[in-house]
Write a structure and sequence with these properties.
Number of domains: 3
CATH architecture of the largest domain: Alpha-Beta Complex
Shape: globular
Protein name: UDP-N-acetyl-D-galactosamine:polypeptide N-acetylgalactosaminyltransferase T5, putative
Domain Glycosyltransferase 2-like: 52-183
CATH topology of the largest domain: Spore Coat Polysaccharide Biosynthesis Protein SpsA, Chain A
Structural class: alpha/beta
GO biological process, one term: protein O-linked glycosylation
CATH class of the largest domain: Alpha Beta
Number of strands: 13
Mean pLDDT: 74
GO molecular function, one term: polypeptide N-acetylgalactosaminyltransferase activity
Distance between the termini: 64 Å
Organism: Eimeria praecox
Number of helices: 12
CATH superfamily of the largest domain: Spore Coat Polysaccharide Biosynthesis Protein SpsA, Chain A
Length: 358
């Protein structure tokens, strides 16, 4: 097979993917397992819950797309994967066009099928095309720029086996979009929500040894497993969402409101490339929010946070800098003094004291 030179051309022109040439020559197999100590009954899972894995893409660099597929094939027990469905939403990059490099490579990948959309309709219709074509009882949605490792799928299937109406997602860890390093401390954790306030946070939980499912109001969107019949029972994706974004919020609401559950399998983890928006905005010469408020929505009233807030950030003790104030998730206005940064290494705070003692 010819090398995918188009990816190199993208980099030379200032790649819209934001990755260095390094990402194009990395090995297809990189290993960083999370919960190998947990054992599952593969026979029981494969007998009733093998999977169709659906990956949609549009102009994804062939190197990242194939690394996603190879990681699935190499780090997932074969009985759990019936098929991997790649849905091309009308890519126009040379390597991905019909008859070119991708078509030449697919026959060498077991269980992989390529589906091509007739016209570009966006991520949700492309996912629905893959879900309709899926023949397994469980569908797993994955993005096209991920890497899985040993033990990523079994915890999700085990939870679906216990609770068939559960939609289960893994923790999403970060891959640097430039150097392709793995980062366990960054990404999307088990409790995903939305916030209308000043700040919004989603932290990786770090409960790598836990097998207990954690309920979550939302999921990140690109990584989730579910029974196909349950998915259709609640109405599937709203295909009115054509482009990326918001479809996961709407589906999350419907999951909970229509009798299903949305949960995270904390020791299941998938690495994901989070691409930098700053480079994209710079390349597109995007205007700032101040321009938007003045020219697009001038009647909208808003507060200047630089004058409305007395301060924003951690409140730390001068006497003991290792202590800071934290609400510990409470909404009644109470605070406790805790060791700064404990959430990164522990499931529970190692110490606390009464409000005001810091």
């Amino acid at each position: 097979m010819k090398p995918c030179m188009e990816d190199w051309e993208f980099e030379a022109q200032g790649s819209p993917y934001g990755c260095l040439q390094l990402c194009l020559i990395l090995s297809m197999l990189r290993r960083d397992p999370m919960c190998l100590g947990v054992k599952y009954d593969l026979q029981s899972l494969s007998d009733s819950l093998d999977t169709s894995i659906v990956i949609t893409f549009h102009n994804e660099p062939m190197s990242t797309l194939l690394r996603s597929v190879h990681s699935i094939l190499n780090y997932t027990p074969p009985p759990l994967v019936r098929e991997i469905l790649l849905v091309d939403d009308v890519s126009n990059s040379t390597a991905l066009l019909p008859g070119n490099e991708l078509d030449e490579y697919i026959p060498f990948l077991p269980k992989v099928k390529l589906i091509r959309m007739e016209e570009r309709n966006g991520i949700v219709p492309a996912r629905m095309r893959g879900i309709r074509a899926a023949s397994a009882p469980v569908v797993v949605i994955l993005d096209s720029h991920i890497e899985v490792n040993d033990g990523w799928l079994e915890p999700q299937l085990a939870r679906i086996q216990e609770a068939p109406k559960s939609f289960v997602f893994p923790q999403t860890l970060s891959i640097s979009s430039t150097h392709f390093n793995h980062h366990k401390e960054a990404g999307i954790g088990c409790f995903v929500s939305f916030d209308w306030n000043v700040q919004e946070k989603s932290q990786v939980a770090g409960f790598w040894g836990s097998t207990d499912a954690i309920p979550s109001p939302m999921h990140g969107g690109g990584l989730v497993a579910f029974r196909k019949d349950t998915f259709y029972e609640i109405g599937g994706y709203d295909e009115g969402f054509s482009m990326w974004g918001a479809e996961n919020v709407e589906l999350s609401f419907r999951i909970w409101m229509c009798g299903a559950r949305l949960e995270c399998a904390p020791c299941a983890a998938v690495y994901h490339i989070f691409r930098s928006m700053l480079e994209l905005k710079k390349r597109l010469k995007c205007k700032d929010m101040n321009w938007f408020m003045k020219n697009v929505d001038p009647k909208h009233e808003f507060q200047d946070l630089s004058t409305a807030l007395a301060g924003l950030g951690d409140i730390k003790s001068v006497y003991k800098p290792s202590l800071c104030l934290d609400s510990l998730g409470e909404t009644d206005g109470s605070t406790s003094a805790t060791i700064d940064g404990y959430w990164e290494d522990n499931e529970k705070p190692p110490m606390s004291s009464s409000p005001g003692s810091a």
